Amino acid sequence: MDRISESLKERGYAHVVPPSDRDVDYAAEVGRLGPLLPQYAGELVRDIKPSSEFDDEQFTPYNTKELRPHTEWYEFPELPPRYVAIWAVHAAEGPGGETTLADGYELVASFSPAEQEALAVNAYEWRTDPGRTPERVDRRAERPVLQHHPDGLVLRFSTMDLQVRDELSQRYVAEGVRFFDQHHVAVKVETNALLIWDNWRMLHSRTAFRDHQRHLRRALVGLSVS
Ligand SMILES: [Fe+2]
Fold first, then answer.
1. SS3 sequence, the chain?
2. Cα 202 to ligand 1 centre (Å)
3. CATH assignment of 2-221?
4. In the chain, domain spans
5. Measured in angstroms, how far is the CA atom of residue 177 from the centroid of ligand 1?
6. What is the pTM of this model?
7. In angstroms, what is the span from residue 168 Cα to ligand 1's centroid?
8. pLDDT digits (tens, 9 = 90+) for 97-153
9. Distance 48 CA to ligand 1 centre (A)
């Protein structure tokens, strides 16, 4: 856990591949960083796998198509989860299915101090499409892109759900996509491996894949009370 915390601080993410003979209780392990937060159906650990409910035209975690860069939980008014952890029950066989990550703090640094200030003041609407989740999550929140918190800078990003309404928000999304394309790292989370990232800092996405048996589990970690 010390190495994970160090890597989270330094790079914004940590990738852990345990010896293949060890079964790790990842929910318990990542729960040492902070409380696990309830997800859409109230569950603390959520299964992410392709579902026949979704065709491959949609952008949703529940098919095999690529995703667009985003941060997690921007559509909720509360503080977004500090960390997102995913581990693979069954990694995608064959090509694709990588999780991609890029440093949002570097993206923000490409904006002028005055623009960064505006991004922390202007409230924008973040609205989800209910067609993207089995639970038909239909949420909206009015929040700035940046939020200063005693524990760090909180960043929100979405190419699809930030309701762009001025030149700055338009450029934030366009620059974010360009930055992500140029600077992301791609991690294939192999079966039994874990990837955890700082959701206040990192943008994440996913490449397309073919294996319909791909099965990840996801936990959202909130702020530690200590
Ligand atoms: Fe996500």
1. CHHHHHHHHHHCEEEECCCCCCCCCHHHHHCCCCCECCCCCCCCCEEECCCCCCCCCCCCCCCCCCCCCECCCCCCCCCCCCEEEEEEEECCCCCECCEEEEEHHHHHHCCCHHHHHHHHHCCEEEECCHHHCCCCCCCEEEECCEEEECCEEEECCECCCECCCCHHHHHHHHHHHHHHHHHCEEECCCECCEEEEECCCEEEEECCECCCCCEEEEEEECCCCC
2. 11
3. 3.60.130.10
4. 2-221
5. 15
6. 0.96
7. 24
8. 999 999 999 999 999 999 999 999 999 999 999 999 999 999 999 999 999 999 999
9. 10
